Amino acid sequence: MQQVADIVVIGSGIGGSSLAHSLADTGKRIVILERGEHLKDTPESRDDVAIFQKGYYKSSEEWIGTDGKPFLPGNYYYVGGNSKFYGAVMYRYRAEDFEPRQHIGGRSPGWPIRYADLEPWYERAEEIFQVHGAMGQDPTDPPRSHPFAHPPVPDEPAIAAVRDRLRKAGVRPSSLPLAINVDEWLRRAQTGWDAFPNTGAGKIDAESGPLTSALRHPNVSIVTGATVLRLETDQSGRRVTAAIFLKDGVEHRIGAGVFAVAAGAVQSAALLLRSANDAHPRGLANGSDQVGRNFMNHNTSALLAIDPWSANTAVYQKTLAFNDFYNGDPVTGYPLGNVQLLGRITGNILKANLPAAPSWIAGLIARHAYGWFLTSEDLPNPDSRIMVRDGRIVVNWVRSNMQAHKALIERTRAVMRKAGFPIVLVRTFGRKTTSHQCGTARLGDDARTSVVNPDCRTHDVENLYVTDASVLPTSAAVNPALTVAALAIKAGAAIKGV
Question: What range(s) does the Glucose-methanol-choline oxidoreductase N-terminal domain occupy (predicted)?
Answer without folding.
Answer: 188-299
